[in-house]
Amino acid sequence: MTTATTRPSDRRISPVFLGILAVTAVTGWATWTGFAEQPGVAVFLFVTAAWIVSLCLHEYAHARTALHSGDISVGAKGYLTLNPMKYTHALLSIVLPVLFVIMGGIGLPGGAVFIERGRIRGRWRHSLISAAGPLTNVLFAVVCTAPFWLDALDGVPADFRFALAFLALLQVTAAILNFLPVPGLDGYGVIEPWLSYTVRRQVEPFAPFGLLFVFALLWVPAVNGAFFDVVDWLLKALGIHEFDTYCGYELFRFWRGENEFCGI
Asked: Transmembrane ranges (predicted)?
């Protein structure tokens, strides 16, 4: 019933997204075949484009779940087209996360789609809408790590393996950060419907600063170390060694020159 009230054009995949998807495919092929004269550039473009694709799918998951939960306004807002330019804050949702990948190899959560919560009934639906985004990152991480935990790396070029490992790291960090029960992040959105009205009103003023708070904490060496210890543990459980993610990040930062340790 909800989908019937959206026009076909509201659900048509955006050419912008298809273009980003094409860049991902072409640069992934160049990384796999060694076609690129500078493999670092190909890896940089492949990981960046794939990361933006995952950000678009993250926000689409929020919007699509909201649509089926009662918020029919998401179609008119362009959220179902996967066009990153339709997001509420394109800077926060696309540009800033990409910059954080370049600066620190962290999958920074984006916050982009505006859901009209008043149209939605039921606490479980509200929680599911918030959880849909980071669950997409979890699914993306499973896809990226599948060749590792399936022991299907025979014949996979080293550069592509490194790039895939680094992309998996970004998805794992994004999922963990998004699921933190901090106001302004999806994790808080999952538990918010179950909190009392008084608690929600008290916490509401801090929501715009939740991401900044998490970012500041990650600058604390002890917190940063503990965070990446958890990330490394999860990746090892999925078959990815720290060497692969390290070399993937080094290859991604091609402007730093060759790295003899990784053989690149």
From this structure: 16-35, 90-115, 127-150, 162-185, 206-228
